[in-house]
Amino acid sequence: MKRLAQLARSADWTGWLGAAIVVVMIGAAISASWVAPYDPVAISIEHRLSAPGAEHWLGTDQAGRDVLSRIIHGARASLAVGIGAVIIGALLGVSAGLFAAYKGGLGDQITMRIVDGIASIPLLVWAIAIVGVLGVGPVSIGSLQLPNEVKIVTLVGCLFSPVFARVTYAVAKRIVGADYVKARYLQGASHWQIVIGEVLPNCLSPIIVQATLLVAIGIVIEASISFVGLGVQPPQASWGTMLSDARNALYSGEWWLPVFPGLAISVTVIGFNLLGDAVRDLFDPRSEARTLVA
Amino acid sequence: MFRLLAGRFFASLGTLFFVGLVLFALTRAGPGSPARIVLGADATADQIAQFEQIHGLDRPFLEQYITWLVDVLGGDFGKSFVTGRDVAGEIAGALPVTLSIVLFAFIIALVVGIGIGILAALRPGGPFASVTRLSVVLGLSIPAFWLGIVLIRFVAVELRWLPPGGYAPLSAGLAAHLQTIAMPAVSLAVYYIAVLARMTQASLQEALRGDYVRTARAMGLSSPRIVFYALLNALPPVINLAALSFGYMFGWALIIEQVFNIPGLSRALLNAISQRDFLLLQGIVFLFTAIFVLANLGADLVNRVLDPRQRSAA
After folding, report:
1. Is the model's pLDDT at B30 over the cut of 70?
2. What ipTM does the predicted assembly reach?
3. pTM score of the predicted model
4. Which residue of A135, A251, A261 is in closest CB contact with B157?
5. Radius of gyration in angstroms for the set of CA atoms belonging to chain B, rounded to a whole number
6. Minimal Cα–Cα distance from B288 to chain A, Å?
7. CA atoms within 13 A on the CB side of B25
8. Alpha-carbon separation of residue B28 from A118, A126, B32, B265 (angstroms)
């Protein structure tokens, strides 16, 4: 709570702008079915390609579908992939980093070499190739049918994990060697108590900073993969597929088709970037400008 | 020093070996064996066994991988099961296209990014620094492929300054070549201009606060010379980031090529996917991975060679 109050005082307006954008976008994604004025997949030939106006605020596309409704529903896919990948990456990476730092010795070496190996995989090329090989159909686990995006979330999550592993490892290594941790050990605290109670809390701020910045990258990656047709499958709405469809309208006059979905991506990404920078300035002001992952 | 370089190089080769193994396994994880895909659903078991024997697909997995890898290192990517064409030839046809776009974008990103960063660092708190800060946030947030679409819409279709897509090789004349790669390269470069500008600004500002700068000022050195010396100290992290960026740019170039309808590695990769052409897919992805690993190695070495503290730490 003290940290939160500090955040409220010190973050400048750009951080607040970022937080506001993030909250609005997540809100839109969660409540898409209620907020969207139209059905995002309802085809209506007589309303096709109508310009933005009172009836359709952001116009309609070639099939007469409402662009605003599709953008609101598209937020779901984008944020689900962005946030989902970061959660998977954080779970994998933080566990690996904690394990390596606490274990030391050979376990440390092996874990961190695997992390290095994963970090040397070019994300976008692999994502395209692997989804391409596995096909864009739904994933079925038992009777459960999961959409194609699950593959992208898992893959991007795995490839995000080195970032988390490295920041966690760097901090955890320092904490593990500290005298107070040795003291806790002598008091008879178990390994779990030390790792979860002493080491992990100290790693949280750089983890949160990276998580926020990586969501932004995850969103762009989802849009890019959907753009080449390997992500969200039509007719379901996604910002990437909307931009792909918009390429057919480049030579006619429908400027709203390429402009609005791209703005949606950019504004969301700006939101997460501004929030991430503000959180970093607060928690971790001396850290590197940014980890480059794409 | 030499031992360090050699050690790093072999570590990268080891990484590439294992990552390639994962790739090799994953490309075979899809539905349907290569034989089934090529011969069709009504091929007999005999035909499939024969096909697998001819192409070595009945060998143990690891043996297949090592045979393939040794051939690839010798420049032989194999012959496609699907089209019968030489994979190395297909890649050699498409690589120059992608390379040309990436190199052009890389040069733009270096010159513009570092230039903006220096100017912004010289007057911290000034109007140019504020504009830079805002532009960096925008540059990091605008997806390259959307920028490409918007450029086509407004620069090519509306203003008719440049062709909306396609590709003219260098052999068709420098002007024609630059006209076709200008918009793709700019779209690709914007993100990295922002990344490099931010790093240059931060690093140079830090360097200009150093004690040696104050001493140099006190001794009456001219301002440009002081900035020059500070820049020498500020550049290693920037060059490191630039080397990393070079590896990442290839990935985004795939998407950009799709936007501008350019016949580069992107088209080859998507063709390989749609035709289930395993060898072509493996070859292209392995090539990208190798470029990426080498770019990372370069970044690492730049760090260690240019920064004496890291040199001794190694």
Report:
1. no
2. 0.88
3. 0.89
4. A251
5. 24
6. 7
7. 6
8. 19, 14, 9, 21
